[in-house]
Amino acid sequence: MATQHSRSAARIMMAPAVVLLLGWMLVPLIMTLMFSFKRYLPLRGGDLGWTGFDNYIRFVSSSAFWPAVSTTLIIVGAVLIITIVLGVLLALLLDQPMWGQGVVRILVIAPFFVMPTVSSLVWKNMFMDPTNGLFAHLWRFFGADPVAWLSEASVPSIIMIVSWQWLPFATLILLTAVQSLDSEQLEAAEMDGAPALSKFGYLILPHLSRAITIVVLIQTIFLLSIFAEIFVTTGGAFGSRTLTYLIFQRVLESQNVGLGSAGGVYAIILANIVAIFLMRIVGKNLDA
Questions:
Q1: Angle, CA of 235, 237 and 238, to the nearest 5°
Q2: For the chain, what is the mean pLDDT?
Q3: The domain 2-287: what is its CATH number?
Q4: Helix residue ranges, H only, 95-224
Q5: How confident is the model at residue 195 (pLDDT cuts 50, 70, 90)?
Q6: Integer Cα distance of 61 and 56 in angstroms
Q7: For the chain, which residues make up each domain, given as ranges?
Q8: pTM of the entire structure?
Q9: Angle formed by the axes of helices 257-281 and 65-94, nearest 10°
């Protein structure tokens, strides 16, 4: 009886927080859906009435829509591959005993706590500047012409910046998984004379599957809405415009909240499609 009473009390105490969270999520979503069916121009007449699916048709029929979707998926896929591969390697390296191990781990994780706008400005001005950037000096040192990264290789530049930001997160999650690996299994494999690649393929990698799944799912959620890095570096030019940035540009150019809301609905649909795909491919590892 006491247990039932305590459960009821817990539900009552949790109810305000649950209602607040539901309102925090549902109210913007409902407003987005509502505005997507309207012609709403805040600076040019306000609410001009319902337009049906006109905003959706205009947005998807734009010549910039599918290139923005493909650029978004390319950036997300490339960043996931880079952060997972390098994250596994760094996790294995940081798990080895070394002098100053704690300091090294802090330095590796530190970029994750830098704001995206700050890190993008650092990469833009200190590394990728074609005149005074570090990469430009390295190119000249080896007798090559400097590369204007943000105009000649805009998408690879964005991928590089975003990968640098998210690599610490992947490394931290994977390092935790590596440290939970049963040392007796590794010792038994060493006693049997198993080579390093076999130990990695049959022991370490299967053990990391859940951690890799978590990294993929969490990073994908955030990477699909990448904006600050593009706004600070390329401004969406040179083929670096993602779906999120396209929505921003459409709202800014036309001052049409309804058109931007329709783009937001498309972004939600894309995020759900990608999430379902990932859950089918790698999400089953959580049940293993």
A1: 145
A2: 82
A3: 1.10.3720.10
A4: 101-109, 116-122, 134-141, 149-152, 154-179, 183-191, 196-199, 205-207, 209-223
A5: low
A6: 8
A7: 2-287
A8: 0.83
A9: 40
